[in-house]
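Incident log, structure service

09:12 report received: a user says their structure output differs between two submissions of the same chain.
09:20 pulled the input from the user's history:
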Amino acid sequence: MSASDITLMIEAFDRLSAAGFTVGPEWQAVHEVCQAHEGEAPFDWGHAICHRIEGDDWNADYWYRRAGKRRGSGTVAEEWSVMKAALSKHL
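09:34 re-ran on a clean worker, output below:
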């Protein structure tokens, strides 16, 4: 996992955030980035958030487990804020 891969995911999530965390082209872009890095914890966490947005809690929980995380009770926006801060440490 390179810093440029993390940057790519941050930028994609920022566009998804600007779109209101809804399923659409921005969601698809984030999902594709995460799928391309399956097995890498930060991207598995992103994958979990994608499925949380989609409303597929079972699939989201699977990806949270793979990332070593748990689905929180806060909003997706709050989780993205926490995730972005954590990702920034990899840059």
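09:41 both user submissions now match this output. Likely a transient worker issue. Closing.
09:42 reviewer note: Residues 3-88 form one domain. The mean pLDDT is 95.
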